Prior knowledge:
This is DUF559 domain-containing protein. The protein is α+β, with helices and mostly antiparallel strands. It has one domain (about 1-115): Endonuclease, Chain A. It contains five helices and four strands. It has helices spanning about 1-15, 20-30, 70-85, 95-100, 105-115, and strands at about 40-45, 50-55, 60-65, 90-95. It has a four-stranded mixed β-sheet, sandwiched between helices. α3 links the parallel β3 and β4 (about 90-95). It is globular. The N and C termini lie far apart (about 35 Å).
Amino acid sequence: MRGMERFKARARSFRASQTSAEAKLWQALRNRRLARWKFRRQHPIGRYIVDFVTLDGKLVVEVDGVTHAEPNEIERDIIRSQFLESCGFLVVRVSNSDVYENLDGALEMIETSLRFD
């Protein structure tokens, strides 16, 4: 249990130090603003802390900065996505630039992803 408490504390610290792109997207997702879906931010799933998740919709939204284009980060993202998918989640990735330059398009893509069955 002690390890789990440290993990939860780490998730809380991530919420307190979110990126500006995450903060902007959170404003659009919080309080059921996107098609009435309940999203959580910096939520632990297994050994990972995801940027955003709707548990009912089984959708994880990851906000990726430029470092995610590096080969080692691409490999980590693949492994992370495979794990989350094995837990029954669909994983979608939104770039920082999409959040800043095309928030409506990013939200539309997220909402469309929630309609999978």
